[in-house]
Structures are given as C-alpha cells and as structure tokens.
Amino acid sequence: MNDHLTILHYVRINKTKAEKDNTPLLSSTAGWQPDEWYRALEHPYLKFFKMDVLSKWAWLGAEILLSKQAKQEGFIYEGLDKNKIGVVLMTTQGCLEVDKKYLQTVSQIASPALFVYTLPNIMLGEICIRHGFKGEQLSQVTDGFDGESIQFWVNDLMKNKDVDACLCGYVDATDAGADLCLFWIEKNKQGVAFTAAHLETLYKQ
User: What superkingdom does the record give (predicted)?
Assistant: First the structure.
C-alpha cells in the first residue's frame, strides 16, 4: 500500500495569533513571554526554566500540539511506537539570544549552563526527552519558513527511514517573541494532505 501523509494537527503562534487547529488558544495573552505561557498551560516540568528562549518556545509549541483537547487526557501519540516518531524542525535565528549571553560570560568564567544551549538542535532534544521520542531527528537553519524543505525531509523520513509519525515545522524565537508553526503528521489518516502548499497556507493564514 502506498502511504499517504496527512497533517492531523497544527499549532500557529506569533505576536498576533495563537491557535491550534483553527481554534484560538490563550488568545487574550498573545505576546506573553514563554514563562507565562508555561504557567498558563499547567504542565509541570521544572527543567523548563533552565532552557534558552528557542527551546522554551519549541517545547511549548510541542506541548500544545501533542496534548489532547482536554487537560489530563494525555497525548495524541499514545499507542504509537516512540522509536518510530521523528522530529524535523527549522529555525532562522537559531540560538542567537543565548549565544550573545554566553559570549558575555566568556571574558570571566564561561557559563556551562548557557553553553549547553548554543546549538539550535538542542530544542529537538528537549522535546524528545519530554515525550520519549527516539526516531530520526533533523534541525536546519533556513532563511525563513520553508514548506518545500519541510515536506522533503519529512517525506524522506516517513517513506524511507521507518518513521510512522512526525512532529515538524518552524520555530524562531528571541526575547521579543516567537514565530512558531508546528505540524503533526501521520500515515494513511483522514485530514489535510501533507503538501508544501498546505504547509505554507497554514503558516501564512
């Protein structure tokens, strides 16, 4: 059987919009800092406060995307083999904010706590540790949201690398706010076809 890939859920957050699957979420709090979003979600995870701003927003976006509609209901990936769940994320500014902060410490005593987050792919690790995903992972630095590139890499993982589901999308963040669009992709399900055009439309709408 030829597998067709489907967008089952998406999350879009920026300075003017916050929604999941066309439903507003925390809409009255648009522009909040990530720590305030974390408190509003009421998903206890104390390691959150140690993360850099990119990892915080990636973690928050994944938490919202993967959670079932009602609190305490669990996560949408239940029943899937976590060894076959992949993650593909892109960013533009990457870990620039923490790079600046780390550089300020180098002249005295370099901060190991900051150094940990001086690679943008750490955001994948934070998500995978939280949810136990052990499938293929990819992080890329791009000029902006790139639906064609997301589609290419997710297609490759899910059709050639034994991945059954994938969290993918774009996370860009600074201390001033975030530009985030994440998608949950599975095989042979009813939903929006996983195409570059649909990814671009959901990002831009």
Answer: Bacteria
Distances from the Cα of 34 to the Cα of 61, 178, 184, 193, angstroms? 10, 9, 21, 31
The rounded distance, in Å, linking the Cα atoms of 49 and 57 is 12
β-bridge pairing 85-91 and 165-174: parallel
Residue of 87, 55, 92, 65 lying closest to 10 (CA atoms): 65
CA pair distance 84, 165, nearest whole angstrom: 7
Are the CB atoms for 88 and 156 separated by under 8 Å?
A: no
**Positive or negative, the Cα torsion across 166, 81, 135, 34?**
positive
The gap from C-alpha 122 to its chain's centroid, in whole angstroms, comes to 11
Chain segment 109-160, per-residue pLDDT in tens: 555 554 454 456 778 888 999 999 999 998 888 888 999 999 999 999 999 9
- What gap in Å lies between CA 110 and CA 106, rounded to an integer? 4
pTM of the model: 0.87
Q: Which among 64, 92, 89 is positioned nearest to 154, based on CA atoms?
A: 89
Sign of the alpha-carbon dihedral angle for 139, 172, 166, 129: positive
Domain covering 5-204 in this structure, CATH number: 3.40.47.10
Per-residue pLDDT reduced to its tens digit, 61-100:
999 999 987 556 789 999 999 999 999 999 886 555 554 5
Phi and psi, residue 76, nearest 5°: -70, -15
